[in-house]
Structure formats: C-alpha cells, structure tokens
Amino acid sequence: MSLIGMRYLAPPHIILRKGLIAGVEYPLLAQHIAEFMSSTLFYTSLLHTSTTEHKRAVAEFCGNVAMCRHTGQVVFSDPYKVSQYNRWTFPHLDHDAESLREDNLLKFEVAQLKSMFCERAQALIHGDLHTGSIMVTHDSTQVIDPEFAFYGPMGFDIGAFLGNLMLAFFAQDGFATEGSDRKDYKKWILKTIEETWNLFNKKFTALWDENKNRSGDAYLPEIYNQPDLWQLVQTKYMTDLFHDSLGFASAKMIRRIVGVAHVEDLESITDANKRAECERKALDFAKMLMKERRKFVSIGEVTSVILQVVS
Amino acid sequence: MSLIGMRYLAPPHIILRKGLIAGVEYPLLAQHIAEFMSSTLFYTSLLHTSTTEHKRAVAEFCGNVAMCRHTGQVVFSDPYKVSQYNRWTFPHLDHDAESLREDNLLKFEVAQLKSMFCERAQALIHGDLHTGSIMVTHDSTQVIDPEFAFYGPMGFDIGAFLGNLMLAFFAQDGFATEGSDRKDYKKWILKTIEETWNLFNKKFTALWDENKNRSGDAYLPEIYNQPDLWQLVQTKYMTDLFHDSLGFASAKMIRRIVGVAHVEDLESITDANKRAECERKALDFAKMLMKERRKFVSIGEVTSVILQVVS
Questions:
Q1: Is some CB atom of chain B closer than 8 A to the CB atom of A70?
Q2: Which chain B residues contact residue A232 at CB under 8 A?
Q3: Which residues in A lie closer than 8 A to residue B50 (C-beta atoms)?
Q4: At CA A101, angle to CA B233 and CA A263, rounded to 5?
Q5: Alpha-carbon distance A179 to nearest alpha carbon in chain B (angstroms)
Q6: For A109-128, what is each residue's pLDDT tens digit?
Q7: Do A229 and B114 touch (CB under 8 A)?
Q8: d(CA A58, CA A81)
Q9: ipTM attached to this prediction
Q10: Which 3 state secondary structure label does DSSP give A135?
Q11: Which of the residues A69, B13, B101, B152 has an alpha carbon 20 to 30 A from that of A134?
C-alpha cells in the first residue's frame, strides 16, 4: 500500500473504478484504504504535529491553488446553479437537476461544506481520492494522482472514496443481466463501504492512542490524558469526522450526476432509461444524506438506507 | 479609525485599558471597533475574496508562526494544566485554579476552540485585539500592535475585545470607593459590550448585502441570491460567529486570571481579598460562558447574566 505519483502501474494493476464496473471483488481494499487514510490524515494533523510544523506545511501546499479552486467550483458550486458545463442524462433528469437548484436546504448545507473545504487546514489530504485514483490487483492497492493534495478537511478524502463506492453501488443495476443479477456484488460493495469507515475509525483512533504521550499540539497529554476526557474528546472528533465524510460523500455523488464530469460507472450504462433510473436513485439518496447526515450514528445505518432505496 | 503599527500615538491618546480602569466613558468606542472588525473581517474572508486570493494571503501570513504558537499555548493550553508559568491570586484562587484543571467539560470545549484557532483560515484577524491594543481619546479609536495578525477564526478578534471588556467590568467593584460606586460605569461597559456585537452584526451583514452581486467564492450570487435562502445562510453564519466569539471571549478571560499574563484591570486592585473576589466572579462566569455559549441567542442575554452575577 503506497501513494505513488505515476499515472500508470505495471499490469496487472487496473483502475479500481474499472474493476467495480466489471464486478471484481478486492478483499483487501477496505483494509488498505483505511490504512492509507488513517496514516496520511493522522500524521499530518495537529493530533500528531506541532503548530509550527503544521503552519509550515500548510503554507507549502497553499501553492496548489488552481486545483483547489477547480475542485471548489465543480464540486460545491456548479451543480447548484445554471452552468453551461453541467450535463445530465437528458431529458430524463431535467426535472431532477432543476429541483436540485431550487433546494434551499441542500444549498444551505453545501455552502457549509464548501467553507470547510476552503478554510479548514485539518490535515494533508489527497484531494481527489475517488475510485479512479486507485489502482488495484487482488491483493495490492496503490493510490495515484496526488496532484490535488493540500491541507484541507479530512472528511473530503474519506467522503470521496465512500461516495464513489456508493456511485458504483447505484450503477450495478444498470449492469445486471439475466445471467448475473449483481446482487452478491452489491452486497460486497456495501460491506466494503462499512469496513472502510469502521477500519479507518479503528486504525485512526489506535494511532491516536498509541501516540498519546508524544501527541501533537491539539490535545496535550498533560491536559487530556484522563480516561473519561480522552473518550469524550475522541468520540466528538470521530463523530464530527463521520458526519463531515458523509457530507462530502454526498457532494461528490451529486456533482457526478448533474455536474460537468461524470463517472464511467454510470456513463457505461448504455440504456438511457436504465441509466437515468440508477442516477435518480443515487441523486435522491445523496440529497437525503447531505441534509440528514448528522442523524447517522453508524455507517451500518447508512448502508441500510441504501439497501432500502435499491432492493 | 485606523489600524496602525506604531506602539505610541501622540497624546492625548491613551491605552483603552487604562481608560477603563480610570472609569472614562468613550461614546464612540463600540461604533469604531464594530466598524474596524466588520471591515477587516468581511473584506479578507471568502464572503468577499476569491479562493485564489484567499490561499495566497493565507500562505503569506503562515510565516507568523511563532506568535500563533505562543497564543495557542498561553490561551488554550497553559491554564488547563500544571505549568510553572501559571499564576493567580494566592492562596485565594488555589482551589479555583485546581477545579479548572479538573473540569473535563471545559477542557473538552477549549480543545475545540484551539483546533478552530489553529486550523480555520476564515479571515485576516488582528490576533491580539484586547483593550491594551487599542488607543483612544473621547472621539478617536486607534488599533495598534498588529504583529499577531494571521488568517484565523473571526470570533477570536471579536471575543478578545468582548472578553476584555468583561474583565474590565468584573474589575470595577475593586475600584469602587465610598465616593464612587462605579455603578454607572459598569452599566456603560455592559452597554458597550452589547453595542459592539450588535453594531458589528449590523455592519457586517450590511457589507455582505451590499456586496452580494460581486461576492467572494463562498456564496455565489447565482446560487444564493434568493431572499429566503440568503436569510437562512446569513442567520447561520452570524449565529455560529456569535457563539465562536463568546467561546473565545471566555478563553481570553480565563487565561488572564489563572494563566501567565494577567491584566492591569484586575492586577491594579491592591487588596488581595477584593481582587480575588472579582476574579472568582469573572472566572465562574467565563467557565459557564464557554460551556453554555451555544444557548445564548443575543448579546443582551449575556450581559443579563453578567449583571445577575455581580449586582
């Protein structure tokens, strides 16, 4: 498991998104990505670094402004306004795209996510951690394309990965044939979504616990090394991070259905009616998730709702 | 009203803190400071600037790391742990200082304020806007000492000013003599606290409204120029900012009573019993404010509680 800057790895690695379209299971994917995210996010956050090192690193990555600006626009703004760049399955989703632009509560929520994306230097994030930025074999997982990296909110990476797995899930009905209903594969995707968050949560808090005596500047051991307080602080941190991640996951899903850049998972469904049906379910789910994200207390609750929507 | 870098202005300007100790009223103070804060904070935030300009400016001010690190330590950490630098009115406040270090809910809250201070580049803040950084005459107000400036949470500046006015209020009983009970002056301080927030709120939202068609990247007019939504977004923004400001105000008060650097308002009360009494009231109020800040919906509610504590 490593982050590499090269666009292509030697075969037999393939882009994860293509594997998800083909219906291939990757038994170590959740574990590998949880490991990648927990390490990169923990060690670059103020849970582990000093404010001095943090500020130096934040400044270093502020140079990456063009990529950040682009992401900010295409993810948090374009889908919510009339834009020549937006597109969707036409005419099927015309009404859906219009409703989105008129949904005040949704626009209220996405504004808060955008502010967090632009203002909060929580950790060094990959910045584009979707399933097209990951190359896989049965037992290897490689994260590529780090050119969007900057200091931002951790939930943006976690949400990118979870949201793209959710899009892959919603696309599966478009790939189902008489010989292969994709039911088992859909179950595997949901299991991977659950395992990713649960393993991330476990590994991240384990790193935090292991480093409690040489911690960063956010929670000094002299103040926070007391079991009840430690528990209180960690629960709050992880709950907020969970809700941030769900928010960013939903924003990523929405922008891939009505924004400028779509995903192959849905685009490769050639029957427009079938594609629109998958997209509408994904879009409605994402809208609900953005608005209601703070009500979820576990990832299992999220996957349960997905199952209700699709089964 | 201007920000200047010089330490001393020509007489008759005096440091506001000294004026507050002497019991001098400054009828334009609230208006001037509200003007200063609304302008500096609005124009340097993403409500007015582009993400490109914002990131460039954030990077520029990341160099100011030593000052930020110092503030982070003395405001958000030292008072909550055993530190050779901490001091307080001894032995009167021994127990109070100890209770503070054992108050888990308070330490939970101050951690969130510290994270916001270190991570959130909301606007270019003065970074040390207490009553010792302001020079005044009857009709002139000059902000000095901008060497702490960096991109941080707006509430840190607003809270610094309000928190120091509150300290000045709690110190007044220590200055009362038979000939002068300071009752009217206490009323004037509370009125100034109220007016500062209310005028800031008014001026800040007015700037936001005036600029709605050439807004920054946070709330694009194409998405948010709709009366109900505009109202929803502004109310949320100003409510969060109000609660952030109260949180930072309380942190600033606490650190001036049990931390390394105290304020002349309280220090100049020579009778230790009297001083300890004033300090304990201020400390208890500040602890309540940090924990309960999200329950307050107006600054008038805050000043009412202060009056109950002291009268």
A1: no
A2: 104, 108
A3: 69
A4: 115
A5: 46
A6: 999 999 999 999 999 999 99
A7: no
A8: 31
A9: 0.95
A10: strand
A11: A69
